[in-house]
Design brief:
This protein is of the alpha+beta class and about 160 residues long. The protein contains five helices and five strands; from the N terminus they run E-E-E-H-H-E-H-H-E-H.
Length: about 160
């Protein structure tokens, strides 16, 4: 078993805890955990820290840090589909279920979305209710609204650089 390393990353939304092994990011969650070890962060954690800084500065829309979330086969399918949502756009839970080929799986998509262990990079904040309401978010609705506004503000600027 590959050892995991943990760091806390400062963001405009508060601290986030990142966990990775030598090859991929395993978790990125809001809040700080006492297990975080800033020393010897490793390549993956250094990469996600730099990419998050660029994202929050409005200079990055697509992350390249490798991710390897752990979940059920259905959750993994949902999380891969979330990664197809372009920065600055949203999809409904129903649209995700349809994209997966199972229109009746809207609630299951919501449950998988809520279990996403890699915030922002696997953009569960881009999933909203069919009527346009935000729905839930592990980081809180204020954080979800902030992220969506941030992306909409910066995505157009980045396309013309």
């Amino acid at each position: 078993m590959t050892p995991h390393r943990t760091i806390v990353i400062a963001t405009p939304l508060g601290p986030m805890t990142a966990v990775a092994d030598e090859s991929a990011l395993k978790s990125l969650q809001f809040g700080a955990t006492p297990e975080a070890t800033a020393a010897c962060a490793g390549k993956v954690l250094s990469q996600i820290e730099a990419e998050l800084a660029a994202y929050f500065a409005g200079e990055l829309t697509d992350f390249e840090t490798p991710v390897a979330p752990e979940g059920t086969p259905f959750q993994l399918r949902v999380w891969r589909e979330l990664q197809q949502i372009p920065c600055g756009e949203t999809r409904s839970y129903a649209a995700i279920a349809n994209a997966l080929g199972d229109p009746k799986a809207t609630r299951a998509v919501g449950t998988a979305n809520g279990a996403n262990p890699i915030a922002i990079i696997v953009p569960c904040h881009r999933v909203i209710r069919t009527g346009g309401a935000l729905g839930g978010y592990a980081g809180g609705l204020d954080a979800k609204r902030w992220l969506l506004d941030h992306e909409r503000q910066h995505v157009g600027q980045l396309l013309f650089i």
